[in-house]
Amino acid sequence: MNDDRIAAPLAQALADKGYAALTPVQEAVLGDGPAGRDLLVSAQTGSGKTVAFGLAIAPEVLGNQSQLLYAEKPLALIVAPTRELALQVRREFEWLYGPAGVHLASCVGGMDQRTERRALERGAHVVVGTPGRLRDHIERGSLDLSALKAVVLDEADEMLDMGFQEDLEFILAGAPPERRTLMFSATVPKAIEALASSYQTNALRIVAKGEAKQHVDIEYRALNVATRDREHAIFNVLRFYEAPTAIVFCKTRANVSHLMARMGNRGFQVVALSGELSQQERTHALQALRDGRARVCIATDVAARGIDLPGLELVIHADLPSNSEVLLHRSGRTGRAGSKGVSCLIVTPPDFRKAQRLLSGAKVVADWAKAPDADEVQAKDDMRILEHPTLAADAGDEAGMAEALLGRFGADRVAAAFVRLWRDGRSAPEELSDTATPARDAAPPRERAAFGAAVWFSLSVGHEGRAEARWLLPKLCDAGGITKDAIGAIRVQTTETFVQIAEADAGKFRDGMEIEAGLTLRRLPGEPVLDRGPRPAPAPRAPRAEPRTPRPAPVEAAESAAPRPAKAPYQPKPPRIVEEAEAARAPAPEAPKKPRWSPDDRVERPSIPRPPKSAGFRSHGGGGKSEGFKSHGGKPAGGSDGGRYASPKPASSDTPRPARAKPAAADGARPARAAGAKPAWGKPAGDRPAGAKPAWAKPAGDRPTGGKPTGGKPTGGKPAWAKPAGDKPAGAKPFRAKPAGAKPFGAKPRAPKPVTDARDTSQRFVPPKKPKG
After folding, report:
1. Which pairing describes strands 104-107 and 126-129: parallel, antiparallel, or unpaired?
2. Range list of β-strands (E), 2-90
3. CA–CA dist 359, 364 (Å, integer)
4. pLDDT, tens digit, for every residue of 739-751?
5. pTM over cut 0.70
6. What pLDDT shows up at residue 771?
7. How would DSSP label each residue in 421-457?
């Protein structure tokens, strides 16, 4: 390409790429006016904007040199909103600036940051990246913008809409103030143009030719479907057009995942492109589309912004876009570089008005039609079979096999098998329900006369009675047995309401008919004269159950300005139920609360006398000793303890021990033990005088020197059977802490006896408790 305005290395690259002429936007940035100035450029998607700003910043990158050497710091910075667009820009710059020896570096999210840092350290003339990752490199010190001469914001409106304004301000603040700032986008609304003024100085606004006729190579089709047939319509549209590559747009990631699962089950070769995927997954998805391994891409608006897919002929808007600019950006993925494309909007009945507003705002005209049904898809498939180029080609190496098939199965069977094989690799078309096609233009508002012949009625309630059309409509329908279509205008006035009822149904309402208590219907001879005065403020609502009574008119302005009389003091209403009923329901007077306790209020409680000692139980150690209790803490007198206690055993071990008597139920005397039972530890109960110390206690005369007196345990002292104080070392554990039921050291083993009392877990006989009385 021979053009004096383009540097020689770049002209050579364009010629090698097959460029015979520049596009309108590329011609616009190479004029004399834009040279060295900030630019705000809007051009049709797919019109060559990437090459356009590549040519625009060539003087700042190349200067007067045709071949660049090592770059210590970057000279140009390209900022793109998405990873895919940034990588796509880098690929375009590689072939455009390759002959000039320009080194490129990319900084995008999801990639290895260490690799990017090494590329920046080796030196890069042009850096391409996303706002977040570029700011990260600047903060870490790996990206120096002090030598920057040009900054390009690609898809600038999208970056500002996506919330990158803070990152962009940070990046531009680190660049020299004398730099050039170029903003490129498919659309530049007034709000974006106002924001761009803060980033640029004396910017030149360039509108490429053809922006007023956006997307002339794209056919817009609005397909109205029932809400339940939305997904089936998408499947049929894909089957009807059979595009080599198609893209389906959804609003959210959840919709992308759901639709991908549904289409994968139907046999479509589909990939997803959304923000929740990693960079590696997104790269693989795009590569599958470019290689032909996948034919359908389901994506969100942000993820698909600016991507260029070869052979993309169909765009489906599964979810309608939020505004007209997004509609143009979505549709701009097809119809690029002069090729044709189709953009289909899936419109459900609730979205009719929204679709019309979107198309009107985008200044495009769409053909409204029904979504292709199963018969139309099948007919399209049959046409493709008949027009398939393989059938028109001459038989080559397959001639022998073709003759063998025809000779063995016949032409009919071979043709039928071919059709079945064709259809087996495609999903079956879906049956769709019939829906009415909406009008292309929005219907004008219905005039009052369009209601037809009608009769006017008056209702005896208005604004002062809190009348509303939504409250009166169901009451009129119930009173006359009509539908709401038979009721025309409802005009609520100050004290009455006028209602228009179709003439055919007016006979169901008689003059003076009472709709409900306080609401009367009166027939009028003609159309009433409506009161156009100011509407008074509505009074506070009363319960619906009470009849609606007219309220007095509001006070005049002069009266409202006068001071209000003093409000009378509140007088309680007399009780409706008095005397006994009220007294029965009256709460009892609250008792005075108990004052908080303090140590000074402590009261000495009288001592409680101990209960008399009962026979038949043994003491469980410590405290007073009840006769008959077995001590679990002390040591029995009949055991051997190494000389600490004297044993009352007989002198000869051959002499049998005396038997203990059983207690009598009448007089409470201690019973004698059965033959062979445990020997008595002391004297028999009958030989002990009343009130004496228990028989099993050690005699006073045998107590070692320093022991306690015989009179039992003093108040607060140790039990009589405890170890003498003089024999226990200081801090030692008391002897009674020995586990219950343990055998004394050296004691003769005895056979276990049955347990008759659940409170005693030892294997020794315990007499029953003495009955009371």
Report:
1. parallel
2. 39-42, 76-79
3. 6
4. 555 455 555 556 5
5. no
6. 64
7. HHHHTSPPPPP----PPPPSSPPPPPPGGGG-SEEEE
